[in-house]
Amino acid sequence: MSLTAVDLVPALLPRVARALPAWLPQRRWFAGKGAPLVAVELTAAARFADQASKSFGVLAVAEVRYAGGKATERYQLPLGFSPTPPEGEPVIAWLDGLAAYDATGDHELTSELLRLIGRDHDLGEVRFTAEPGGELAFAHRNGMRSRRMTAEQSNTSIVFGDRFILKLFRRLSDGVNPDLDVHRALGRAESRHVAPLLGAIEGPGVTFGVLHSFVADAVDGWRLAVTEACQVARGEDVSRFLDEARGIGAAVAAVHRDLGQHYGTAPLDLAAVRRRLLATLDSAVPVVPALTCYADRLRELFDGLDAPAATAQRIHGDLHLGQVLRTPARWLLIDFEGEPSHPIPVRTAAQSPLRDVAGMLRSFDYAAEHELQFGVAEHFHEHACARVRQWAADARDEFCAGYASGSGVDPRAHGDLLRAFELEKMLYEAEYETRNRPDWVRIPLRTLRPTLGE
Ligand SMILES: Nc1ncnc2c1ncn2[C@@H]1O[C@H](COP(=O)(O)OP(=O)(O)O)[C@@H](O)[C@H]1O
Ligand SMILES: O=P(O)(O)O[C@H]1O[C@H](CO)[C@@H](O[C@H]2O[C@H](CO)[C@@H](O)[C@H](O)[C@H]2O)[C@H](O)[C@H]1O
Question: How many A from CA of 85 to the centre of ligand 2?
Fold first, then answer.
């Protein structure tokens, strides 16, 4: 009788864990880069695909401990074990002739996760569930080709036959992931602006993954924006994106309306807003020394922020052009997870919808500055800069007009609050870029001074 995963896993996991301090920091989705790792412990949440096969999978959770008082973090690590790992998949560790590797790169193992969802199956304490009404769409589609997405992501997504997309959350937080909860709510509200939710993988008090319809013929807003910014820099007479910006504004307004109806609205807690703005500042300054000279001015501005009669509700929480998909029919919003670095109660607290608006406005500027910083050198002359920045200003206006037409609230009438949220986003971005894409930090830094009115 051959040994199955049930017999092997308890002995294998501690050995894999020993290899993780070297492997984890190389992953795009690993948020603990830069902090010295002290130890990684692995526990198995569920084993799958282990019947009589030489290969098997383990949905493991890695608990990562750091030196210097940084809080412990948990990451989902779907592991594959096989004597013949998939070609090209980096091996985390060889264990007596068995390779341990990231299971998201193994077609057989990821297909098994899809099958488990389709069958509404439980593995120990892990529940694989199909959303009501969604089962028939995929339950019998075994053997569909799967591919891991190569996009720069905070999580890992696997696309099955261009029909389904399974996102496995990497950094785990206690509670139901807002991406699951909000998609369930918007599905019930029959929102036209989200991709249908088809299933989920959930453990006790934690969400491991969400399954959606894959929109194969969609293009994301960032790609459309940078393409047009480049054409504008070259002096081409184009303006399609301005209509698109208006459409994005209307879609965001419609989603805000549905979220407000489902989760309710309340007066904005301005003291909490100020605390959060200051916390973002305090977090960013030590990481990005170039912010130091703005810190006093920002602190003064955040401390003195006033916003009479502002309202709060559930929002997207991390909205930018990469989070909106243009389908042939309409704009969709994706990824309602919020900022994974914050605990779920912070992410699900009612906030001003203008935070989402500010995130999107920043993104138009980002597309413009990205072209000016990284575009073809010949664009770097005065006229190209003026054209591209005017294009971004026009896109911002169109977005606000679209939002106003869908919600009755024109964001431009709430200048102080909107500016504070844009500044907050710039601080967040400066920290994010310093940690993840240091070359890009110039983009948020460039817009800081003019937004401060200096
Ligand atoms: N339903 C979908 N249909 C098509 N593509 C999608 C869908 N959902 C997400 N994507 C693509 O997958 C990428 C990553 O998705 P996202 O939810 O933003 O992941 P993450 O939380 O890791 O950032 C997106 O940029 C988008 O291009
Ligand atoms: O990956 P997430 O969607 O969780 O978001 C993080 O990464 C984004 C970059 O991928 C980052 O967005 C910033 O860069 C975008 C262009 O790549 C730009 O459109 C956004 O406006 C800008 O904020 C986002 O901030 C971060 O949370």
Answer: 33
Among 156, 157, 347, 432, which is best to mutate for testing ligand 1, by the most ligand atoms less than 8 A from CB?
157
Which tens digit of pLDDT belongs to each residue from 138-169?
555 656 789 999 877 889 999 998 899 999 99
Task: List 213's β-bridge partners, or say none.
Answer: 164
- Taking only the tens place, the pLDDT of each residue in 402-443 is 999 999 999 999 999 999 999 999 999 999 999 889 999 999
Topology given in CATH for the domain delimited by 219-452: Aminoglycoside 3'-phosphotransferase; Chain: A, domain 2 (3.90.1200)
Distances (CA, A) of 454 to 298, 412, 447: 12, 20, 10
Q: Is the CB of 444 under 6 A from ligand 2?
A: no
CA of 349 to the centre of ligand 2 (A): 21
Q: Is 151 in the pocket of ligand 1 (CB under 6 A)?
A: yes
Number of Cβ within a 10 Å radius of residue 146: 21
Closest C-alpha residue for ligand 1 atom 15: 335
Ligand 1 centre distance from Cα of residue 159 (Å): 10
Predicted pLDDT at 335: 97
Task: Spell out the domain ranges in the chain.
Answer: 5-213, 219-452
Can you list the residues of the chain whose pLDDT is less than 70? 1-7, 51-53, 134-143, 377-380
Cα 379 to Cα 232: distance, rounded to the nearest angstrom: 10
Query: Residue 32's Cα: distance from chain center in Å?
Result: 16
Q: How far does the centroid of ligand 2 lie from the alpha carbon of residue 112, in Å?
A: 31
- Predicted complex ipTM: 0.97
Residue of 131, 150, 153, 173 best suited for mutating to test ligand 1, as the one with most atoms within 8 Å of CB = 153
